[in-house]
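User: Hey, quick favor. My workstation is busy. Could you predict this chain's structure for me?
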Amino acid sequence: MNELQNALSEVIESGSQANPALSAVIHNYARYHAVLVIFGGLLVIIFAWLSIRFWANFKRNSMINKSKWSFEKKVYFSFGIISSFITLLMALIVVANATNTFYPLHGFSLFIDSFAISDGESYKDEWRFAFMEWIRSGNENIPAMIQQKINARIEFHAAKAIVCGALLIIFVTLGLFLWNSLIKRSKAMGSKWRYIEKTYFISGIATVALSLLLMVMVVANTQGAIAPLTAFLVGLSG
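Assistant: No problem, here it is.
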């Protein structure tokens, strides 16, 4: 058992005041997962609402004939499936992270198993050693060298979260325009698509994929900005 695991055992046995440094790390770890709980909960609400809207539009949209769906009906069906899947996935993520938010000790004790220092010297081992020395000291104040890394991570992740958030808004807006335009064109032209309709379709699929990717990046970088110490430790794990 390494020094960090020993320190954690002391906190479990003696209470959160036994080691102020480790207590600060555990609180940061809980905050790291709380971001996922909060953002995940918001996404559950948003995608559940979208799912209801898509399925309602799907049922309301008429079929071309008994065996053929209209393009609009296919679009609502596809988006209904996607939004329902994301709703269930985010609900699962919220439940999983709620445990680490309200009861962080167990999750953190598993997380630190990857912090054993190897026999050989490496860049990660130097930072792991510095981190363990801080935990061993019990000082609540973060050492300057670690604090510099944390401050750099705050700036880095905050900037990425803002940029990704702006791009997310742009791609969602563009996606709405493309799919609405494509539905209108399909009503007017039927199944005869020209080059522009095919371009809209491919671009629309791309906006959906990029929007989902940017959504993940916004949440991940918000985690790094709000709980930078845990994000720093995640980078040192493995």
